[in-house]
## 1
Amino acid sequence: MTSVDFSKHKKAKALKPSSRRPAKELCSECGLCDTYYIHYVKEACAFINQQIDELEEQTHTRSRNLDNPDELYFGVHQEMMAARKTEPIPGAQWTGIVSTIAIEMLNRGMVEGVVCVQNTKEDRFQPMPIIARTPEEILAARVNKPTLSPNLSVLEQVEKSGMKRLLVIGVGCQIQALRAVEKKLGLEKLYVLGTPCVDNVNRAGLQKFLETTSKSPDTVVYYEFMQDFRVHFKHEDGSTETVPFFGLKTNQLKDVFAPSCMSCFDYVNSLADLVVGYMGAPFGWQWILVRNERGKEMLELVRDLIETQPVMSKGDRKAAVQQSIPAYDKGVTLPMWAAKLMGVVIEKIGPKGLEYARFSIDSHFTRNYLYVKRNHPQKLEEHVPEFAKRIVGQYKLPE
Ligand code: FAD
Ligand code: SF4
């Protein structure tokens, strides 16, 4: 990447926190509009100007090959694997591969700062984006804040600090806006470490989700929708509570997810250099996608700290996805005993590894396609990327 004379880029006044965002109800609070880079919002916002194709080309030198089944689903990549830290970081979301890579990059001087998100003192789920300059600050950002987080709100500080080498950790909508303004940031080197992301909520929505789903909402430390078709809640006392997906109170939870997340098709963070999630890996393992050479450089730093295995794929998701479409649409909730039984059966015979990832992508893309079609019909054609149209096209959707 060549350096840019950033004094020449255009600036506009950041919006006040209470002002309505240009993407209106579709805003994911990515943080761009909290900075003077709001000047570029019409081109940069993932919900105003979907441009994954062009940005894939800018970032990885080519857009995904839609005729390659793995690229159609998971985006441009050189390598995919399952991995876990041999010594997991206590309190990380999974085994802490994300935090470990960030710490190594800082310790080795590859970057001067890391954009990541801690939580406020008062509320463990209230996001507080920062530019970390020490390993301790990165560690304090470990674990998901399962809420919309304005990670890009610190971008003005990057430029003001004169930093030239930066790592940004973030989810798809944040990274799309970041890529669109990347050349204006005055950086010599930008690394992007992404996680997949789906079904995010605002802080009030999170409270509703916890209260309708967990037996003890106030003691939840973190949660994850796991590959065994259950939500796992970890509580303050170290205990784990599990609730089968099929037992979720869909009728009450229908409006809980943010409209931005109901209209997102970048589940797998297409524009990051390296993606670390879990859904394409066996239970207990993380899933890594190396998208380009920068991603490879980042992963090399932790090769000695992780064990890996090849990705696998088992089962057939298609019937389960097709059945779930009208069930979700009608807000069907099973009695808990039936949900538990269904969970046990599907865990035994259901999709595993990459097929589980495809199950999750298909279920969310079909749901989101219907949402956009019904709520923002004028956006449907432009907003849904070609790869998502092909994925959704495999299923029969209700009107
Ligand atoms: P850790 O070492 O614990 O680090 C987590 C990092 O995430 C921190 O650096 C922090 O800065 C960053 N972060 C935390 N919250 C946010 C946020 N709201 N926005 C941006 N960055 C944040 N993976 C899947 O495979 N499938 C999914 O469906 C899926 N859904 C997710 C939904 C959300 C809202 C988020 C934030 C992540 C999701 N992930 C998903 C990713 C997965 O849960 C883990 O974050 C990932 O595997 C990294 O785990 P770790 O132990 O290496 O991370
Ligand atoms: Fe602005 Fe980001 Fe909201 Fe789009 S999603 S309106 S860029 S804050």
## 2
Amino acid sequence: MIDKSSPLPIYYQLEELIKKQIETGELEPGDALPSEREYSETYQISRMTVRQAVNQLVQNGMLYRQQGKGTFVAERKIEKQLLGLTSFTEDMQGRGVQTSSDVVEFNIVLANAYIAGQMQLKKKDPVYEIKRIRLAENTPMAYEITYLPATLLNGLTKEAAAQSIYRYIEQHLNSPIGQAKQTIEASAADDVEAEYLQIAKGSPILLIERNTRLKDGTPVELAKSVYRADRYKFKVDISR
Ligand code: 16G
């Protein structure tokens, strides 16, 4: 309930109340939020205050607006384990979610200095450059640009890349993927990322770069993954 004598701002109290309704399932993903007028009448608060609370929740991704239709409850964010070297396919299958990929580009290019340095190749060595939109239940979740050493992984096809690149690597080389170094940065979607992820340009994204090796230390992948920040959060168990 809203307590007008509380030192907590009213918009904040309403924000917490809506959050609770989402957490308890009283409001479910896809549900339309009651109108500003309904909230303002129910709680005897101004529509401005309601708007302020709703804006906060739109900003943090718990609600989204559809022009001309109203405000709706967003899907819950996917919690991705930070530890564990899994592929997108494994992540989704582990959740029982149907997954697919759109391969928007599939090329062999010459390694630039950065790629060569990261993958222990020589500058201008051939590498696959694969750009994929990764979908869960037909919703774009991530956009990935992957570089793979072309000599080591020769024979990779666009069809195989539309499935699982990790499966191809492990089967083709008959050797397990072993470890990776990974960085995560906050960023804003550029034109291309926004189009592929079906979000507005400038929306928050999580930029993940992964440099992956086989168990024996051979570098096999340099990948840049762009995840929708409104769909993902990362989870890690820590202790001391
Ligand atoms: C994940 C990896 C990416 C890898 C891909 C392979 C992150 C941040 N990135 O998306 O580096 O290339 O899985 O997926 O987790 P696949 O085997 O399904 O093609």
